[in-house]
Amino acid sequence: MILISKSISCLSLSFAAMKKMLSGFLVLAFLYACNNSDKTSSTQPENDLDAARIFIRDALDGRFEKARQIMVRDSINDQTMDVTERTYEHMSQAERFGYHNASIQIHNTREINDSTRIVTYSNSFKNQKDSLKLVRLNNQWLVDLKFTFHQQH
């Protein structure tokens, strides 16, 4: 009788330990999934529209370092992005929330040549059309902000 009760208590103890380990693994898996979900926007764009979408999403979400990864890196673009980032940092929490929850609407794409596209888009928060110039450099589509912010009229 004592032997049976010891066996049962050992089984319940090991079951409790297994249950604890399983819940620990589930928590780790959940944290890993949450951490990896943010990395989807840092993948390389497959085409011009993908680059535009990733760039716009990162900017709307305030992830400017990620947005810079798919931007033509020159002094004018870097300065433009710095100003945009500072503007975002001074926005109210409600305005940031509005941008973060906004969806992206692509209205038009124009092919200028085989390595240049103009994408006209808006976001559901401001509903104001804007354009991005995308250029293919070294087989990668990048955003060139000079077209958007520094157009010569």
Topology (elements, then pairings):
Elements: H1 2-37, H2 48-60, H3 64-68, H4 75-89, H5 93-101, E1 104-113, E2 116-123, E3 130-137, E4 140-144, H6 145-149
Antiparallel strand pairs: 1-2, 2-3, 3-4
Please characterize this protein's 3D structure.
This protein has 153 residues and is of the alpha+beta class. The chain folds into 2 domains: 1-37; 47-149, Nuclear Transport Factor 2, Chain: A (Roll), CATH 3.10.450.50. It is built from 6 helices and 4 strands. The protein has helices at residues 2-37, 48-60, 64-68, 75-89, 93-101, 145-149; strands at 104-113, 116-123, 130-137, 140-144. Strands 1-2-3-4 form a 4-stranded antiparallel sheet. Strand 3 (130-137) and strand 4 form a beta hairpin. The longest helix is centred in the N-terminal third of the chain and has 36 residues, at 2-37. The model is unreliable at 1-11 and 21-41 (pLDDT under 50).
